[in-house]
Amino acid sequence: MVAPDPLTAPWPFSRAELTAGLRRYFAEPGLQVRGVRPSALAGEAGLSRVRALSVEYGVGPDSFAVECVVKEPVGATRAGLAGAGQREIGLYRSLAAQLPMSTPALIAADPKGEWLVLEQVESGRGPGEWSAQDYRRAVQTLAELHERFWNLADDLAAYQWLARPLTADFEIHVYAAAQAMEKMMAADWPPEITHSTPVLGGLAQIISQIETVVQSLRAEPPTLLHGEYVPSNVALLDDGEPVVFDWQLAGLGPGVLDLAAFVAGSEWERRPLPIARDELIALYRAEMAQRLNVQWTDDHWALLWDSALLWRFTQEMFGWAASAPREEFTARAAAFRDIWLDPALAAAARRLRPVLYV
Questions:
Q1: Which of 134, 158, 160, 211 has the maximal Cβ count within 10 Å?
Q2: Other Cβ atoms within 10 Å of 347 Cβ, number
Q3: What secondary structure letter does DSSP report for 338?
Q4: Distance (Å, rounded) from C-alpha 96 to C-alpha 56?
Q5: pTM of this prediction exceeds 0.85
Q6: What is the secondary structure of 196-246 as a DSSP string?
Q7: Which residues contact 194 (CB under 8 A, 6 or more apart)?
């Protein structure tokens, strides 16, 4: 049995894998890794465990250091979907050069997507420090992304690792939402859902009629989606330019899904925002009209927005409500009601058939 390398034993990668990655990254074939030690950053980002590491390396007699981040998907994604790590690695290797924004550089990665090492990006300010102009710039960046890949479903079909939430992956997400409802009912938790007959009826209405919900979304031109475009996944450099990371949910679908995720996710991370949600939505619509001459009537946009909200709730928030630790849910209960639950129920009342109980 081969003894673990003491230099890399606490990490998921080997010294050889890290060395090969850094040689490519710095274009230095003689580079040698001399030491790896943990840095301060540790925690979770999206679907991954994240740790920072400082790598000491040498080129000839000279020594240097580079700050990196290692991400290890935890729980990957729902059964039947491509792994989160595989999606992120695929995007960095195949599409990063075509994106209209900067991303961290991929240094090394496991072929199965179990870990990836990225350059560490230092943000000039965190989401809690964003100004109204920062939120505007983030929406403009999102519009740039959607413009670049607008209606290119045939071109993106080559990337099988991309998520396809409204088509190939649709039934998996709906099944997971139904399972989450059963879990909440069995546990009689959370009370905001299980102790309210109108709420239970509204959520059952959403799941049972979700095929109707997504029809308008499927009719929209698809584009490349980030999947979880929220301020905590955007590092703003000192000059205000964004570096976008955490592409684990990258997929194909209508751009309104990304915008809905950004608006609700921004409010989820920080309340109140320094800018009104209506201004962010209007800015996106104006950007898409200017860039692509894509214009929606107010009535059609209202339908798309309601549909996007209902789908995002189905895709993400059923699972969160069922699986969040009770302390976390209690701490976020008011935000959950205001940002997600009440708007979703109101959208269901506007768009779906009433459910009759006998």
A1: 134
A2: 22
A3: I
A4: 27
A5: yes
A6: -HHHHHHHHHHHHTHHHHTHHHHTSPPEEE-SS--GGGEEEPTTS-EEE--
A7: 184, 185, 187, 188, 200
pLDDT greater than 60 at residue 45: no
> Which CATH class, in words, describes the domain spanning 127-351?
alpha beta
A 10 A CB-CB count for 297 gives: 8
Residue 16 predicted with pLDDT over 80: yes
Angstrom distance (rounded) from CA 337 to CA 342: 5
- Rounding to the nearest 10 degrees, give the CA dihedral for residues 301, 302, 307, 309: 110
| C-beta of residue 329 within 8 angstroms of C-beta of residue 294 | no
8 Å CB contact between 84 and 76: yes
Rounded to an integer, what distance in angstroms lies between the CA atom of residue 185 and that of residue 333?
17
For the record, the structure tokens of 321 come out as 């409500």
State the Cα–Cα distance between residues 338 and 345, nearest whole angstrom. Answer: 11
d(C-alpha 238, C-alpha 152), whole Å: 33
353: alpha, beta or left? (left if phi > 0; alpha if psi -120 to 50): beta
* Whole-number Å distance between alpha carbons of 318 and 227: 17
CA distances from 191 to 107, 123, 194 (A): 46, 38, 5
Measured between alpha carbons, how far is 256 from 219 in angstroms, rounded to an integer?
A: 12
Would you state the pLDDT for residue 305? 98
Cis peptide before 10 (omega within 30 of 0): no
Q: Contact at 8 Å (CB) between 341 and 316?
A: no
Q: Token pair 């209405």 is at which residue? A: 205
Per DSSP, the residues of 127-186 read GGG--HHHHHHHHHHHHHHHHHTTT-HHHHTT-TTSB-TTTTTHHHHHHHHHHHHHHHHH
Please name the residues in contact with 186: beta carbons below 8 A apart, sequence gap of 6 or more.
none
DSSP per-residue letters across 40-94: EEEEEETTEEEEEEEEEEEETTEEEEEEEEEEEESS-SSTTSPPHHHHHHHHHHH
Beta strand 223-225 with 251-253 is antiparallel
pLDDT value, residue 23: 98
**Average predicted confidence (pLDDT) for the chain:** 92
Instruction: Give, as one character, the DSSP assignment of residue 98.
Output: G
